[in-house]
Design a protein that fits this description.
heterodimer; A: six-stranded antiparallel beta sheet; six-stranded mixed beta sheet; 21 helices; B: alpha/beta; 33% helix; 21% strand
């Protein structure tokens, strides 16, 4: 592949700059400093790989002189086909297009394909370099150099061996480092160790479990024994306590038995004997004293009865006396009422007289009372009044209308008169005007017609005819106007006639209405007369004065109502007064009748009747009281007699019962009876207490009463208490031990429980451990995979060095030997070591850093040229572009280098940029095949 | 007279799940409880089926865990059985061997442990008649290398001679009327099954010729019927899987033994025993959580959504299979734990390699199925899927990458490259410097190294590839 044309559109200081027809072989492109050599080299690189990104540090060479950034390079392929790579601005790297004969392809991928995947760094290191790259190579790590070198034959990709190794190392270190802390595996190990520690701590629990369990068993045994012993002690204690409890009742029991034996044996005695005896005696005493009191009472009653005498007549009249005394109050009221009513009557009478007087002559009490005041009559009077009012109203209305009509009549008469006068003036004026109009127009028409006839006459017939016609027209117009005026006048006259007629008619209508009104007035007058007549008939019917007006009637009516009311009231009072008078007399009569019946000496009057009745009543009450007392005493005396009989019977029966009781109690008298009773009660009490004591004792002793009695007969309480004290001490000791052991057992049981609980946690941790181990294994495998990958790569590289590298190295040896004038015989790469060594003519091996700067640069140049050749044969022959790389070479080696370059240029195009003109001379002197292009001249000097 | 029993083994109570992912809270609780729940399912099964006794052929719990909880739980569950009149016969295995720690517990009456290190027997009586004699032995230590079969044979002979009924059984066709059904309970690796420690070794022939009617074996975690009948030899498998290798349905066996009439002959019934017993069994799933390995290929998939949908479908299929599984015992709500491997080659491989992507996917799958029935947990999500690169072509390339791939290919075929294996083992040395790591990790064997080498190769491909844009 050869560069044939460089076309710069705009790049740094270049603007529309072109180098055309670049030949094959070596071309020296020379120029002074700042001529743009380095810029051109950058341009080539930029066209192939894009404008440098700002971050890379390479200059982008934006156009300084104008023009679009970029340009093109035309290449000639192996088969002589030409194609042009063009890069224009676009993205940061620019947009690239490859133009072929038959089309165009866009994009970096096309370049990638064209250059067979050559990477920019590799291109820059091997095919397009300046002194910088050459020297930078020196400063790079040995590994990097070899990686770079070998990357030329890595296959598949563009990544360098060193990159891959670095990548692998990083992965390896991230995974695991012996004694490391951060790598994943180390962390996992740490976690696992912690987990294991935790697990083993928990694992101790199950081991301890059995020990604790055994301890629990042992304690259980001891507790069991102690519990049995304690039971026995408690039982014994209980027995002794029973004995102590039984002691007291037992002692009392034996003592009482002795007491009973000492008393006389009275086994039977009447029940409640003493109480019964006492009660018999008491009741006898009571009965006897009652007998005495009865006798005394009977004597007192007999004495009182002697004193009581009754008035039988008076007593028989008692209902009449009581009735009169009741009526006495009424009698008193009547007397009072009589006086009041009398006064009222005289007042009312005066009033009535006044009223009749006011009403006028002819009116008596009777006529007032009998005057009919019916509602119908009142209504009739009201109707008369209403009708009279209506008639009056109608009369007023007719009067008002008459007034209006008379006024209108005057107006209409005036209207008619006025119109008559107007009519006569209007006709004269209008006739005059019509005549004048016609006259003028006829005159003008005549003049025109005259003119017309004259014209005809003079031969100007046309004018004449015209004038004639005009005259006729004027005449006709005048006539027309006149006719019109006259017609208007006639129209006006007929209009005025109509108006007059209308007014006449209106006047006539008014007069008509006046006539009707008169008729109505007449009708009204007749109605009024009829009305008055009827009213008088109405008055006569009731005998009322004929001058009474309907409007006065309600007053009269009202007055009569009041009068009737007043009269009725008076007559009522009068009636009451007379009734009262009659009743008073009747009462007095009744009193006197009674007095005669009871043979009372006095006769009652209205004045003393009250005191007589009252005294009668008080005497009667006295007599009634005496009678009632007499009856009570007689009844009481009868009852007392009966009681007396009853009492003596009771006394006898009680005396018999007392004798029987004494006999029953084995005694003849009271004292013996009481003594026997005393003994009997004493025995009973002792026997009762004894049975209670037996129950109490049995309760305590239960089924063992005989055993207990036997023991208690032998031992006393103190003895038993002593035994109990000893047992209690033993009890306490046992109990303390038991509590202690139980507590210990509880503690151990808790531990056991907690072990059982923590078992779950252990499972969880084990599961965690399992997954941790799983991850460790996985990560270990990953680590191994990385490690193996690394190792395989190294082995591959070794093999590559051994089997494939010699071509490159051999080539480098030859070139280096040539460059150094055979001072250095060999370039070599020790197996397994990623570095270069050189062998001097004296056989000494040197590492590159032991070489002088120039020599080292020559070595690297040799390596590059060898690699370029290797790459060319293996992959793609690319043009070599170099920029003043010989500055550190001495003349001899410069010359040797140039020779070598010339030789290599036979297979590969070489563009050599330089500012050293002497190189051209040197080439010329040596007569070497090369081309020369002076920058700025644009002309290539073909040396050969 | 017929009888019925449940045969289980390798309960491994309270042993944690491994490879279940980082679990917390409820999920963690559920996992912890799973072995207990499975055991409870067995107990419930015994009660529901009204069996006469329960046989446990070793490894009820892991003695190394010193799990008090396991032993206490065990006792409580046994109480339920003995209350129902169901007896329990237990042989200890290598995990609960008798030299190990054991909580000092009072076991309910009716729970019998076989003697340590020597074969002993218990008589099982029904209606006053001995219907079965159960022989068994408990491990005296973890690693038992003794073959106990001769002892079993001897014990049985003694027993029968003592009962004065049959001293010798030379003729197996002989119908020994009245002789009880004999059961051997043994924790053993019969016939040297791969993947299990070769403890109490014996051969199938030894078992089938020992004169027993039923061999209740334990130790192998997979349900295996070694011999169908005369005698029936069964490994019921672990009742609850605990990691991805113990995937699929797990359970125990319900065995029914019925006595045939005198007229019954061997020809008429394939299961007829020497003594006129007929043995029928059925296996019942007891696992609370079933582990299920899923392999999902990314071959034709181009979008992450498609992958998610595909995984979802496969999960749902497995879940509906679980729900409708005829093997389910009891009505317990079971769950599923998935270990998913993404396989194949396709464009999605690159996405899967993206940092954090897989974790997000996993979280997504878990969250999506949170709180739904049945319980589903995605434990792991692994990738063997590769980009659609033609590796073989790349391997032939004469480049560093080609050389690398050639080496990794060798690394996946270590049998032919022992030198490379040595190099790899040497590379792992730093890991084994640490004491804890030495305890946790075993020195990798060839298959492990090859597996890791495959990871290395994938890593290499990732690193050599142009970076993801």
């Amino acid at each position: 592949m050869q560069i044939r044309e460089i076309r710069v559109r705009g790049f740094g200081r270049f603007y529309n700059y072109a180098i055309e027809k670049l030949p094959s072989g070596l071309t020296i492109i020379s120029g002074p400093n700042e001529a743009g050599k380095t810029t051109l080299m950058s341009f080539i690189r930029a066209i192939f790989f894009g404008f440098p990104d700002r971050r890379t540090g390479y200059k982008r060479h934006e156009p300084l002189e104008g023009g679009e950034h970029g340009g093109s390079i035309t290449l000639e392929g192996e088969n002589g086909v030409l194609y042009r790579i063009e890069r224009t601005p676009g993205s940061a790297r620019g947009e690239v297009a490859v133009y072929y004969d038959n089309g165009v392809a866009y994009g970096e991928a096309e370049i990638h394909r064209l250059l067979k995947g050559l990477s920019e760094p590799l291109f820059q290191q091997i095919f397009c370099f300046g002194l910088d790259e050459l020297q930078r190579l020196e400063t790079l790590q040995n590994e990097e150099i070899s990686g770079l070198i070998y990357s030329a034959g890595m296959g598949l990709n563009t990544r360098s061996y060193a990159q891959i190794q670095r990548d692998l190392s990083k992965r390896q270190e991230d995974l695991y480092r012996p004694a490391g802390k951060k790598p994943e595996l180390n962390i996992l190990q740490q976690e696992l160790a912690e987990l294991e520690a935790k697990i083993s701590r928990l694992m101790a629990n199950p081991r301890e479990y059995n020990t604790s369990k055994a301890q629990v068993e042992h304690l259980n045994e001891r507790i069991g024994k102690a519990e049995t012993e304690l039971n026995a002690v408690e039982k014994e204690e209980k027995w002794l306590q029973t004995l102590l409890q039984a002691n007291e009742p037992y002692r009392r029991l034996t003592q009482a038995a002795e007491e009973l034996d000492a008393l006389p044996a009275i086994e039977v005695f009447p029940e409640e004997g003493i109480r019964r005896l006492d009660s018999l005696k008491d009741s006898l005493d009571t009965l006897e004293s009652q007998q005495n009191r009865l006798n005394l009472e009977l004597a007192a009653i007999a004495e009182e009865l002697q004193t009581l005498v009754l008035d039988e007549r008076l007593l028989a009249a008692s209902p009449a006396i009581l009735e009169l005394s009741e009526e006495l109050k009424l009698f008193h009221k009547w007397q009072t009422d009589q006086m009041n009513l009398k006064a009222q009557l005289s007042y009312k009478l005066k009033e009535i007289k006044q009223f009749l007087h006011n009403l006028g002559p002819g009116w008596t009490e009777e006529r007032v009372i009998n005057f009919s005041l019916t509602l119908t009559k009142r209504k009739q009077a009201q109707d008369f009044l209403n009708q009279t009012e209506h008639l009056k109203e109608d009369a007023r209305a007719l009067e008002a209308e008459e007034k209006l009509l008379l006024r209108e009549k005057e107006q209409r008469e005036f209207d008619v008169a006025e119109l008559e006068q107007q009519n006569r003036r209007g006709v004269a004026r209008e006739t005059n005007l019509a005549g004048r109009v016609f006259g003028v127009s006829a005159a003008v028409a005549g003049i025109v017609m005259g003119g017309g006839a004259l014209s005809c006459f003079t031969g100007n017939w046309f004018q004449g005819v015209v004038l004639l016609l005009l005259g006729v027209a004027l005449a006709a117009g005048g006539y027309y106007v006149r006719t019109m005026l006259l017609a208007g006048e006639e129209l006006a006259t007929s209009r005025e006639d109509d108006e007059f007629q209308l007014r006449e008619e209106a006047l006539e209508r008014v007069l008509d209405r006046l006539r009707v009104l008169d008729e109505q007035k007449e009708e009204l007058r007749q109605a009024m007369e009829r009305q008055l007549h009827e009213w008088r008939v109405f008055l006569v019917k009731d005998g009322l004065p004929l001058d009474l007006k309907p409007a006065d009637f309600p007053d009269l009516f009202h007055h009569l109502e009041k009068g009737q009311e007043m009269l009725r009231h008076y007559r009522e009072i009068l009636h009451i007064y007379r009734e009262t008078e009659r009743q008073s007399a009747a009462f007095l009569q009744k009193v006197n009748t009674l007095l005669q019946t009871i043979a009372h000496p006095t006769k009652a009057t209205a004045d003393d009747v009250k005191s007589i009745v009252l005294s009668l009543k008080s005497v009667l009450e006295e007599q009634q009281e005496k009678r009632s007392r007499l009856r009570t005493l007689q009844e009481h005396a009868r009852n007392l007699e009966l009681n007396k009989v009853d009492l003596s019977f009771q006394i006898n029966s009680r005396q018999a019962a007392m004798l029987a009781l004494l006999a029953e109690g084995g005694a003849e008298n009271d004292a013996d009876f009481r003594k026997n009773s005393q003994i009997f009660l004493q025995r009973q009490e002792i026997q009762k207490a004894q049975s209670e004591r037996i129950i109490a004792f049995e309760l305590i002793a239960a089924s063992r009463s005989e055993e207990i009695a036997a023991i208690l007969d032998k031992q006393d309480a103190t003895n038993i208490e002593e035994q109990l004290t000893i047992l209690e001490a033993k009890h306490i000791t046992l109990k303390t031990n038991l509590d202690q052991w139980r507590e210990e057992r509880g503690r151990l049981q808790n531990t056991l429980d907690s072990f059982e609980e923590s078992a779950g946690e252990l499972s969880l941790l084990r599961q965690k451990r399992e997954s941790l181990i799983e991850r460790i294994r996985q990560k270990s495998e990953e680590w191994m995979a990385v490690t193996f990958c690394q190792r395989m790569l190294e082995l591959a590289k070794e093999r590559y060095e051994k089997e494939r590298q010699p071509g490159v190295i051999k080539e480098a040896t030859e070139i280096f030997s040539n460059l150094t004038g055979e001072r250095y015989q060999r370039v070599l790469s020790p197996l397994g070591e990623n570095r270069l060594e050189v062998e001097r003519e004296d056989g000494r091996r040197l590492t590159p850093d032991a070489l002088s700067r120039g020599t080292a640069e020559q070595l690297y140049l040799a390596m590059r040229l060898a690699l370029a050749k290797e790459y060319s044969t293996r992959t793609l022959a690319l043009p070599l572009v170099m920029d003043d790389i010989l500055v550190n070479f001495d003349p001899a080696r410069t010359e040797a280098t140039l020779k070598t370059l010339c030789k290599l240029a036979a297979d590969q195009q070489i563009l050599f940029f330089t500012c050293h003109q002497h190189l051209v001379q040197m080439l010329r002197k040596q007569n070497l095949p090369f081309n020369h292009l002076e920058l700025g001249q644009q002309k290539i000097e073909l040396i050969r | 007279m017929g009888f019925k029993f449940v045969h289980t083994a390798d309960v491994h109570l309270d042993s944690p799940f491994s490879g279940a992912g980082e679990v917390r809270g409820e999920v963690a609780g559920r996992f912890l409880h799973a072995t207990f729940k499975a055991f409870q399912n067995i107990i419930d099964l015994c009660i529901v089926e009204k069996v006469d006794f329960l046989l446990i052929a070793g490894d009820v719990y892991n003695e190394a865990d010193l799990s008090l909880q396991a032993q206490l739980f065990c006792r409580e569950e046994f109480k339920k059985l003995t209350r129902e009149g169901i007896e329990v016969f237990i042989a200890h295995g290598n995990h609960d061997h008798c030299a190990g720690w054991r909580a000092d517990l009072d076991w309910p009456h009716g729970v019998h442990f076989f003697p340590t290190g020597e074969v002993g027997s218990f008589s099982f009586q029904k209606a006053g008649r001995e219907v079965a004699r159960i022989f068994g032995v408990s491990y005296p230590a973890r690693a038992v290398l003794t073959d106990y079969l001769p002892q079993f044979v001897e014990a049985r002979k003694q027993q029968t001679s003592r009962s004065g009924q049959l001293a010798e059984r030379s003729d197996q066709q002989q119908n020994a009327e009245g002789e009880p059904y004999s059961i051997g309970v043994l924790h053993t690796n019969a016939g040297g099954i791969a993947g299990y420690d070769n403890y109490a070794p014996c051969t199938l022939t030894e078992l089938t010729t020992a004169g027993f009617d039923y061999w209740a074996l334990g130790h192998v975690h997979t349900y295996l019927v070694l011999h169908e009948a005369n005698p029936t030899v069964i490994y019921p498998g672990i009742p609850q899987g605990r990691h991805t290798l113990e995937e699929g349905p797990k359970g125990c066996c319900v065995v029914e033994v019925s006595e045939l009439g005198k007229t019954a002959t061997g020809q008429e019934n394939a299961y007829k025993s020497y003594q006129g017993y007929k043995t029928t069994y059925r296996w019942v799933e007891t696992a609370d959580l079933r582990w299920q390995n899923l392999s999902v290929s990314i071959d034709t998939l181009t979008r992450v959504e498609d992958l998610l949908a595909k995984i979802g479908r496969q999960i749902d299929d497995a879940a509906s299979e679980l729900v409708t599984s005829p093997l389910r015992g009891g009505a317990a709500e079971r769950g599923l734990i998935f270990c998913i491997t993404l396989t194949g080659r396709g464009v999605l491989a690159k996405d899967l390699r993206r940092s954090g992507f897989l974790q997000d996917l996993l979280e997504g799958l878990r969250t999506e199925r949170q709180g739904v029935e049945p319980f589903i947990w995605v434990a792991t999500l692994k990738v063997t899927a590769r980009p659609a690169l033609d590796l073989e072509e790349l391997r032939e390339e004469e480049s560093l990458f080609g050389d690398f791939l050639k080496l990794t290919a060798k690394g996946q075929n270590l049998a032919e490259h022992p030198d490379l294996m040595e190099i790899l083992i040497a590379e792992t040395a730093p890991l084994f410097k640490d004491r804890l790591m030495r305890q946790l990790l075993t020195e990798p064997d060839a298959p492990t190294l090859e597996k890791i080498m495959r990871m290395s190769e994938e890593l290499g491909i990732e690193l050599f590839s142009p970076e993801v844009e």
